[in-house]
Amino acid sequence: MSESLSSVAENMDNSTYAHIFEDSLGEVEVELTPLQKAHLARQKMIEDGTYQAVRLNPIDRAKANPNSKAMAIRAMCYHCVGGERAVDSIRNCTTTHCGLYARRPYQTGSNDTEDLQDMELADLPLSED
User: Fold this and answer.
1) What is the 3-class SS of the chain, one letter each residue?
2) 59-93 pLDDT, tens digit each
3) By CB neighbour count within 10 A (0-12 exposed, 13-18 middle, 19+ buried), where does 107 fall?
4) Residue of 107, 64, 65, 59 whose CA lies nearest to 87
5) Considering the entire predicted model, what is its pTM?
């Protein structure tokens, strides 16, 4: 492997599996994966100012995926606590007579952290530039 090809390979993220070729003239050519192309397109939209991140609150996420019981429970708990500081309110819920109390998300020691950041960000108003 030539020096230029090895430097390109070192700078690539190994988890993306880009294809790196060296032609007969010693020119390095990188073929991007579809995921890398999508990341580059998103980065270009961010730089152009045309990208608007959309973060759905748990109620809208449950509506988008009506077959998910977990999303339905998150949406109900989010609605019940009023959406303000929802993660802490759901975690510290004291309504033990609720049918969903034992299944509520974000309990201490649970593995239910996939939406933690999104849910906290959903509570923040989106900036309108």
Assistant:
1) CCHHHHHHHHHCCHHHCCEEEECCCCCEEEECCHHHHHHHHHHHHHHHCCCCCCCCCHHHHHHHCCCCHHHHHHHHHHHHHCCCCHHHHHHCCCCCCCCCHHHCCCCCCCCCCCCHHHHHHHCCCCCCC
2) 999 999 999 999 999 999 999 998 877 888 898 88
3) middle
4) 107
5) 0.51
